Amino acid sequence: xxxxxxxxxxxxxxxxxxxxxxxxxxxxxxxxxxxxxxxxxxxxxxxxxxxxxxxxxxxxxxxxxxxxxxxxxxxxxxxxxxxxxxxxxxxxxxxxxxxxxxxxxxxxxxxxxxxxxxxxxxxxxxxxxxxxxxxxxxxxxxxxxxxxxxxxxxxxxxxxxxxxxxxxxxxxxxxxxxxxxxxxxxxxxxxxxxxxxxxxxxxxxxxxxxxxxxxxxxxxxxxxxxxxxxxx
Amino acid sequence: xxxxxxxxxxxxxxxxxxxxxxxxxxxxxxxxxxxxxxxxxxxxxxxxxxxxxxxxxxxxxxxxxxxxxxxxxxxxxxxxxxxxxxxxxxxxxxxxxxxxxxxxxxxxxxxxxxxxxxxxxxxxxxxxxxxxxxxxxxxxxxxxxxxxxxxxxxxxxxxxxxxxxxxxxxxxxxxxxxxxxxxxxxxxxxxxxxxxxxxxxxxxxxxxxxxxxxxxxxxxxxxxxxxxxxxx
DNA sequence: TACATTTGTTATGTAGTACATAAGTACTAT
DNA sequence: ATAGTACTTATGTACTACATAACAAATGTA
Lengths: 232, 232
Prior knowledge:
2 copies of one chain form a homodimer.
Chain A: H1 3-10, H2 18-32, E1 40-41, H3 44-51, H4 55-67, E2 71-74, E3 78-81, H5 86-92, H6 101-117, H7 119-125, H8 128-144, H9 148-165, H10 169-188, H11 199-208, H12 211-221, H13 223-230
Antiparallel strand pairs in A: 1-3, 2-3
Helix pairs in contact in A: 2-4, 3-4, 6-10, 6-12, 7-12, 8-9, 8-11, 9-10, 11-12
The structure holds a DNA duplex (30 and 30 nucleotides).
């Protein structure tokens, strides 16, 4: 067994520092006291005193919560619990160069899973206007044709539009922040392969076909990706 | 137009503090210099001097990156860039009591989307052993029967097992950290409704049926949830 | 020479003080 | 009563000091 196995199996023992502890305590405190967005928090000095640490440490912990959007601070008025944006924290660590290869593949699979599963939301919320716009994108692709950069841009536009049509804002933002990851993966491909079902085919299904047909169509559109997964 | 519209439309102008700026600068720095996991960072004092800020500010920024798992610090050895766990940062802000209602619904939809789309991965990776275990869970449910707490626990076990069977670790962890959210949503339900397709039905499809049948089965299993979405 | 122990150096971790700044609050004058 | 002023207070930033851990070098011993 190589050294790598040990590392990934055990992970490093990280000595908890005071800010770590204070961060956790603060989270617990906010929960226990069932703070709601808008409520005011005690001031830094009081917290430091209660916890028996320096103001410095408290500030580090607060800085973290602030970064996550859990609290906002204003001079003199003190701190207020806020409603964090769940995805912004996610975005911060999502860099294809930093995250590991297995995670990269996981994320790719999740995308495929989502797009095949999207059919129901799509048929629930799609509007004729949306479908028209999607068609325009698909047509544009056919016109501009093969060139690589255009192809990728259009690919993004098409699939992005589909996510947007679901009316699920979180999903949409999730997809948009995954784009760099896919861009990275596509750049690794040497020869771009085109699926059996084209974007225009998908649009036509959306116009006249059923949910099941769309799912099947999307599946075939993405099929070569799934084939690649099989061999991994 | 009510005050609420203004608030949600504009959002608060947040004055950027020095730690905010330093955090961003550090990220840029890491990217530009194309640091790889394991590489050593400059020491705090050097950073503070280069950036023209106090060590305090640098430490706050570093504390944030440390929380996200982007850097690890060890006494004397300095800091090294680490491979962040993309989901742990996510987990920190995922509290059903804090996140807004619309986001809650979005997440719920994402779960449904995922589970319907899972079929392909599932058929790609499932083993007879997995299917047996899943069957056991489904049988247990039938035996223990109706009691509420058991029912929920079993529901979690069943769907959790399915995620596990996909072999996608990220997906699995994602699901497990969403559990509190669903627990919260279920607790809001007054009368639990059972889908047309039971867990045992799904197991049988997994044994003898096709991917398409499974997708259809899962869809009907979750159908009452989709119905609820329609009326929102 | 090889190994164990001690000492020293250095970078991070924590505490504490000081002051700037912004945002309320109370008070005053027209 | 309103406008303007002075005061108060909590956060933001800087600086100093020292504890602690980890590595490095030097010293001592077999």
